[in-house]
Amino acid sequence: PRSPPSNMILGKQQLEVLSAYQFVLSFLFMGIGFTLLLVYLLFTWLWSVSVLYLIWLYLDWDTPQKGGRPSEWIKGWKIWEHVRDYYPVKLVKTAELPPQGKYIFGYHPHGIMCIGCFCNFNTNTTGFSRLFPGLRVSVAGLAGLFKLPIYRDYLMSVGLCPVSSESLDFLLSGPGRGGGQAVVIVVGGANESLDGAPGEHRLTLRRRKGFVRLALKHGASLVPVYSFGENEIFSQLVFKEGSWARRLQQVFKNIMGFSPCLFWGRGLIWPRSWGLLPFRKPVTTVVGRPIPVPHSPNPTPEEVNHYHRLYMEAIEEMFEEHKASCGVPPDKHLVFY
């Protein structure tokens, strides 16, 4: 077969670049941008737009805690396919997940922007519904983001919900949710993003046990998930643990809820320059084998520690099993913090 014309290839590459770039801009600026816009409109002849939205916001305030408002139409937008193809992002299944079950996916690592998590679980581009038929999937994100006007609606439309007890309890045991539900939790959170640099495989996990307690409370199987390449798409200035700069980052995170990562990618126009466009590095997300967890509404510390240890062993075993095929050197191993 004849090769497609060069101008068609160039057009596809440009769409991928622009799609990846818009994701970064939305991640960084959409929340604060729309907040400032609504405040600005209050002082113009369009003040009624802001007032009407604020009334809607008041009436709709609890929706994120009740499963959100996912839209299959938005999750299927063509732009997400271009984002997927830019890196590219791929989803790998290693075991069957019966559709009548309940699951908590522990996603690792956080990276800078969780691009593997977004493509695989917030969009329909990598075949999650085909690989795991019958499973509804929701991704738990920073609760503070759902207080930002308009941005909250955008997040809910792609299947995000707050990582709060009320929200997670609803997803795993709410009306009509007895089974067939998967909740994705980025276990390391904002703290882990501070270690998201190329070549690093450090997980904030040793003292993160809330997701295990949640699994026991609802009898949900634990599923380890690791995205190889998540830390490769941006470079970051990583400070040593205990340094004054790292302590300053931690203080900022404790106050604001997110980490002030000092990261950079490539330039949009000149690839060799610094910029906000991610590097083109493949991201392979491996969904591991489920760890059955009993239903224990009031789990003991011994139960939590037992299944937490099983989970850590499972994520380490999965990493070692798949690292060679994902381009990780044999001398690289997971480091737990």
Question: Summarize this, please?
Answer:
This protein is α/β, with parallel strands linked by helices.
What does this entry look like structurally?
- The chain is α/β, with parallel strands linked by helices and 337 residues long.
- The protein has one domain (6-336).
- Helices cover 41% and strands 15% of the residues.
- The chain contains twelve helices and twelve strands.
- It has helices at residues 6-41, 47-59, 72-75, 78-86, 115-122, 128-131, 151-157, 165-173, 189-193, 210-218, 244-256, 301-322; strands spanning 89-93, 102-108, 136-141, 160-162, 181-186, 202-203, 221-228, 235-236, 263-266, 274-275, 283-287, 335-336.
- The strands form three sheets. A seven-stranded mixed beta sheet has the order 1-11-7-2-5-3-4, with helices on both faces. A three-stranded antiparallel beta sheet has the order 8-9-10, with no helix packed on it. Strands 6-12 form a two-stranded parallel sheet.
- Strand 3 (136-141), helix 7 (151-157) and strand 4 (160-162) form a beta-alpha-beta unit.
- Helix 1 packs across helix 2 (47-59) and helix 1 (6-41) packs across helix 4 (78-86).
- It is globular and about 60 Å long.
- 36% of the residues are buried.
- The model has no long low-confidence stretch (mean pLDDT 92).
- Its EC number is 2.3.1.-.
- The chain crosses the membrane at residues 20-39.
- GO terms for molecular function: 2-acylglycerol O-acyltransferase activity; diacylglycerol O-acyltransferase activity.
